[in-house]
Amino acid sequence: MYMAYGWPQVIPLELPNCPSTQQIVYLKVVNRLLLVVAPTHLELWSSSQHRVRLGKYKRGLDSIRREGENLQAVWSPDTKLIAILTSSFYLHIFKVQITEKKIHVGGKQPTGLFFANISLLLSEQVPFANKKLTVSNFICDNKNMLIGLSDGSLYNISWKGEFCGAFSLDMWLNDNIGANKFSNHLGNGLTSSGNQRVDVSNHVNHVVSQTSAVVHLEFSITLRLLFVLFSDGKLIQCSVSKRGLKHTESLIVERRLASEEVVCASVAHEQQILAVGTLKGVVELYDLADSASVIRSVSLHDWGYSVEDTGPVNCIAWTPDNSAFAVGWKLRGLTVWSVSGCRLMSTIRQIGLSSVSSPVVKPNQDFKYEPMMGGASLMHWDEHGFRLYAIEERSSERIIAFSFGKCCLNRGVSGTTYVRQVIYGEDRLLIVQAEDTDELKILHLNLPVSYISQNWPVLHVAASRDGMYLAVAGLHGLILYDIRLKRWRVFGDVTQEQQIQCRGLLWLGKIVVVCNYVDSSNTYELLFYPRYHLDQSSLLCRKPLLAKPMAMDVYQDYLLVTYRPFDVHIYHVRLTGELSPSSTPDLQLSTVRELSIMTAKSHPAAMHFIPDQLPREYMLRSDTSSSSDLLTREPARCLILRMNGDLSLLDLDDGRERELTHSVELFWVTCGQSEEKTNLIEEVSWLDYGHRGMQVWYPSPGVDPFKQEDFLQLDPELEFDREVYPLGLLPNAGVVVGVCQRMSFSACTEFPCFEPSPQAQTILHCLLRHLLQRDKREEALRLAHLSAEKPHFSHCLEWLLFTVFDAEISSLNSKSWTITSIIVVKIHMGTKTKFKQKPGSSIQSCNLSFEKTCDLIRNFPEYYDVVVSVARKTDGRHWADLFSAAGRSTELFEECFQRRWYRTAACYILVIAKLEGPAVSQYCALRLLQATLDESLYELAGELVRFLLRSGREYESTNADSERDSPRFLGYFLFPTSFRKQPQDAKSSSFKEPSAHVASVKSILESHASYLMSGKELSKLVAFVKGTQFDLVEYLQRERYGSARLENFASGLEMIGQKLHMGTLQSRLDAEFLLAHMCSVKFKEWIVVLATLLRRSEVLFDLFRHDLRLWKAYSITIQGHGAFAQYHDLLEELEVKLSSTVNAEET
């Protein structure tokens, strides 16, 4: 899969020599060459490691005035000819010739680039120039090209400049559009006012005369399919014969797609998928192998952007391997999607959702840092998928190139382990690293310049089974990287390196297996090198292959090689001698199995052995010899992932293939891959990922589970965020590692930097549910203990209990009652995701006892948090069922209370009110209130006060408010920051209610306030007042001569100064808060002390000018104590102000 990284690069284009249309006409990349056709000129660039301009052709002013600007263009498949149609309907054909003049760009290594000459071969006006027609884009094959006209016809032109004439499309359509095929052949020749019709009197279909203009053509040479888009949004699919576009009579209209409002289309020939862009800004995917049935649609609507923001789809570009596609919109932005609908990259900043990929856009924010802000007019990937070249709408000055890395997905003839997640770019590796803090980070690893400069770009990457070694292959040769030692190993002899053209990489233990293409003989072979030495002298074995392999895999000593159409060969690898530099080991391959399978299905994209899964207790037997023999036994099954996404299981004994699922992008075989005791996924057979999310597969129980017809059972889906693409697994942590896009911004760069960000999603809850379902309680407990220190352990237990309880409720309700969809914060992914269960869905844990799950979780201190969290996620009507198995709510509360887990205990208050009654809940809340005050947990105490006052009113009324039963009401305790701003009536009026319940709350609060005031704990007093909304003014008025009294000024100033620590900002804010309240009750003693500490001379001046005796006492005290020397400057300032005031009054 593809992830953007780094800053977008800008390729400047030459400015026109005369006023012209600000729009690039054509953009395409073929054979490391980039062709750009502008309105007045064309440029040819290198798209390899060094991006330099190789040649250009600039039209003269006379040519532009006479023949018009460049309007449409097309490049021949062999890159030797360029055809351009001007706005005055002149056809220009140019010849591209690479010269022998080399290009030097600096440095010691040659670039291998040569200048190109572009010359004009033909300039002739087309026959339809005088018909006032508009044209579509060109499409072509090796001999001819087609262009669409506004009268609904297509015009055929040869690359020799021959005008072959026009032909129109007449279609016999059935009411069931898109389902039937048509056999009428289209006529040839130039059309006039009408269209040709085919008269079939016995046909029940009706004639549809196509009069709309042809606005877009899309052609797949591989599939021999032509798609014609008309101005009314209709899209027609035609088949092309092997003879090509020259023989237009062989074009057959097959179907009209059901989609409406189509504006563009693009074909993925390997996947046989048609991507269609619409006026609504949506891209629809069609399966061409299944009668053009709709697969799915993708858009930015779920990310807060409508068609008013982005405009309609303007262009679509598939990656070279057809696993992803880029979408450009007319008004704004560019986005890359996977086939399954995962958003891999987007230039548009995020609004609407809480997303890790993009920041929120402020209305007045400068948008200059957003690429493609004006929309995307043209896009094209380079041949390796490392660069996406894009041109902004209404721009002719530059090309923007986005750098992409490809994820190692263990497909085809290159294998990698799931424990090492690697993204490789054109000249570097991006490695996911798990730090000691359990934080995942991306490490950029640059390849040695001596290797990559000669063998650009990186083509294959494979990680060893333990993930500690990487094999990397470029255009020639290969290099190895030791992750522990951080060292590269390369070929010592460059000549030997250049003889290797790697087409695939595998690891066979400590041996690197290279699928090598021999250019001289056009054959393929396997080369076996030890990882300690890359040299011809250390080559262990050379195995010629029958043909180019489609897929390869290794398990222990067995090697699988698959050829077209579907021939499977399995070899046994036998190594004799020690694999070390000091010995001479010998490696031999022997064929153990050959299968030739006849099938009409699509070709395999990946194949992997499925080893037999042995129970752990069997692995730990004392009879190690027998268990070792079983471990090295030849695998009897393998998984097949086909190009169309079908996943199936192949029995290698009898050749039977069993279909498992479809729409799969990748999978990981996990069974038999790790021998570590801390492996948390040993019970899993494999995992797959597709548009449904992640699926976990297990072997079913039984005497011989490997011979049962239905030995596989599918786990409920693991919903992955649509911005996170999975890369692999961390078996010791029980998590799936994915990657998503982030963007960082800098004031010194025009564009943001794209940063792949690794994310982790746990699958522990699936594993625990699987073990409990099979009554493996001890194994489940051991697995849970191994995971107890892992991140998100509490979340896993919560999700486990939630899904099991949901299944219990669903199984008891004949109407398939479903738990209300609620939003749960998924901390581990950094986004909000909805946990939903679909009506009538089959959940494997339906028969799982809820009590059994509770018994497992009781072994961990997280149990109390987990239970109350599940209660918050369910309807209050089912709390009785929940706590009948989990334990009585009052007992759980008491346990939390005794352990001083006060916040968890507070979460049980509402449950107690629902199940045990208001009196019990109020009693528990009062106890908890006193405890939280003693611990200075004032925010939690404030929530308890508000609950007590609210519940006192609600439960005393005969008609209880329905809100008290709602799970969101428990948010008062779970999310305190959301409820800090309370209505004013809860602040004062609630205390005046003449009830014993309110009096108890008031007594507890006043008692705590007196305790704090007596000890002069003023910072705590401020926090207490703010947290509980305690009426401090009323209290001060009543306790003026009680606990709030200051005995004398000097001791009060010294003690309060020590308590408040005025050097900190928070202490000064607390003092200001208290001073405001003291001024409101005119508490002079406190006003003088606090104003002195704050050096508020204006407050002191206003007080002293009306009470000179107080001023004299204040002055004497300050001057008479050495500890108050710091206030002498304040005293002098006040004395000056008071003296001036006295003098003014006397005059």
Automatic annotation (TrEMBL):
<dbReference type="InterPro" id="IPR040096">
    <property type="entry name" value="Ric1"/>
</dbReference>
<protein>
    <recommendedName>
        <fullName>RIC1 C-terminal alpha solenoid region domain-containing protein</fullName>
    </recommendedName>
</protein>
<dbReference type="InterPro" id="IPR015943">
    <property type="entry name" value="WD40/YVTN_repeat-like_dom_sf"/>
</dbReference>
<keyword id="KW-0472">Membrane</keyword>
<dbReference type="InterPro" id="IPR009771">
    <property type="entry name" value="RIC1_C"/>
</dbReference>
<dbReference type="Pfam" id="PF25440">
    <property type="entry name" value="Beta-prop_RIC1_2nd"/>
</dbReference>
<dbReference type="Pfam" id="PF07064">
    <property type="entry name" value="RIC1"/>
</dbReference>
<feature type="domain" description="RIC1 C-terminal alpha solenoid region">
    <location>
        <begin position="765"/>
        <end position="960"/>
    </location>
</feature>
